[in-house]
Amino acid sequence: MSNMPLWRERGIMGIVLRAGGILVILAGVYIIYRSNNAYPEPSEPLWWTGLVVLVIGLHMFFFSNMAKHQIYEWLKSETIALGLALLIRWPIAEPYRIPSSSMEPTLHGDNRFGRGDRVFVNKWIYGVRFPFLNKRIWYGKKPERWEIVVFQTVEKNARHKTLVKRIVGLPGEKVHIAGGKIYINGKPLELPPDMPKIYYTSVTGGLEEMKFGIREEDEYSLIPENHYFVLGDNSSFSRDGRFFGWVPNEHIVGRVSCIWWPPSRWRDFTGFSKTWWWKTLCTLLAILLGIRLLVGRSVVWYRWNSNKLSHYFVSFLEYGLRVPFTKIWITKWKHPSRGDVVSYFVPDNIDGVPNGTIACGIVAGIEGDKVQIQNGKLIVNNEEFSHPLLSKSTLSPNYTIKEASYGYAKDKGHSTVPPGSIFVVWSVDESNELKIDSRTYGWIKVENIFGKVKAVWWPPKDWKRFS
Description:
The chain is α+β, with helices and mostly antiparallel strands. It folds into three domains: 10-67; 93-274, Umud Fragment, subunit A (Ribbon), CATH 2.10.109; 289-465, Umud Fragment, subunit A (Ribbon), CATH 2.10.109. 22% of the residues lie in helices and 25% in strands. The chain contains seven helices and 25 strands. Strands 1, 2, 3, 4, 8, 9, 10 and 11 form an eight-stranded antiparallel sheet that branches. β19 (377-380) and β20 (383-384) form a beta hairpin. The chain is elongated, with a radius of gyration of 32 Å. The model is unreliable at 1-10 and 397-412 (pLDDT under 50).
């Protein structure tokens, strides 16, 4: 297996792909912008097209300098993440953009790019529906009065196929709107304190007449079983149940739980942010983020003596504290020792190895050590270097692809590790010609080490803890 990128001429093609990626990213952003400002209403198909173009551009840019195994691992992880996202989006939760001003001031609709409220819809609470069908697999909690819901419209030629309104009338109730108030079974409803003061209109100046909830015949006032009467908070500018009638339970996608964008408009409609499980989840996410930034991360690299890939957990704090995502050390309290398994940035400009590649290796030589490979054995300071991971290995000098033969300089009989550097060894699988340690990369600068490898955590069958 080779560490070469997908293209043969890495330098020029890398620049071309990066530049092309930037152009495709800009094209995707522009298409999304146009989709949000399309007339007479935002175009959802155009928005998804822009998103696909944007994602392609991001992949071109980030993959332009990656090796095959890194691209493979990225695509595998993305596939798993996408599958989980779709699995969550179908039965559990889904983001939704407010398309109009019909729910003002509770929900703000704005077609401009990045404007308008985005909400999360709890799709689990009323029962899971079959994909693409207005039919439930099972029924959950029944919708309650004043809950804000997203639903599929009952109108065949509606401008918006998916709407967001507030449930006002329940199955079996008789509803009537008069004098700006809603009457249920002849009694006026009191609006909850967290709702805006709404004057519900019962007449329209347009060509179409409001009938449902306005006229008193049972056909227009008595809500059928398993149906609901929905209204918009912006009563004068809302096309809602007064026009199209009752909404079947099966058409309800889910309950609006919160506004998540823009941050200045954050609002929790259901109280979930006060629940113990939500606080626990946020705490765990914060802990995981802190670990990722300051404590450690996962690295994908080859197994020792194998062309198979494993996931390693690398501790940042073993040798000191550094600025996240940089090579800048804030402070150091320990230097790498012989036998440590470390993760490091491969030196730039190594033939066949993309810049920025992250590798793992066993520290065999530190500053000032004399290293030499003789008869398939690694000699450090005139003694054979041993390590549990190398117990069945043979270190062949034939791996070198450099004129300077690190570890077995013929003119001196040995090589001396220069100041601020280390000598690392790793895979020795000659059948696959894996050139992935100092015999290929040369001396590794200590500043390029970003952590100590503590364990193999994936796949589970390969679990191993390092001292």
